[in-house]
Specification:
Largest sheet: none
Radius of gyration: 40 Å
Strand content: under 5%
Number of strands: 0
Helix content: 55-70%
Length: 124
């Protein structure tokens, strides 16, 4: 078992050395030198507060540009005319009038019934 672990460790060391050589070659191609004194970082520092204001501005500008390009590609008009907009339900003026008439009739019946009860109490 120890031989198996040693073999795996040796293989990983060889892979690490190959990766280091590849990184050094790529850095030389770009003209950047490897910092000798800089310790290897574990990645960029994490922000606790979310996005910076500058980052938020960049992102919103990029999104505005993206949506403007998309709208221009579609060739859609800026706003649809109000006559062609689909109705969201609701009542037509005729339906509203019919409802108002029906409510007036109901209240008239209630009113006459209440007046009849009042007259019946006064007579007694």
């Amino acid at each position: 078992m120890a031989d198996g672990l040693n073999g795996i460790i040796a293989q990983l060391e060889r892979q690490k050395a190959a990766i280091d050589r590849a990184l050094a070659a790529l850095r030389n191609l770009e003209g950047t030198e490897t910092p000798a004194a800089a310790p290897p970082s574990s990645g960029p520092a994490k922000r606790k507060g979310g996005m910076t204001p500058a980052g938020r501005k960049r992102l919103s500008a990029a999104l505005r540009k993206r949506w403007a390009a998309r709208k221009a590609a579609e060739g859609a008009p800026a706003a649809a005319p109000p006559d062609t907009a689909p109705r969201k339900g609701g009542m037509t003026p005729e339906g509203r009038q019919r409802l108002a008439d029906a409510m007036r009739r109901r209240w008239a019946v209630k009113r006459t019934a209440a007046q009849a009860r009042k007259r019946g109490r006064k007579a007694a």
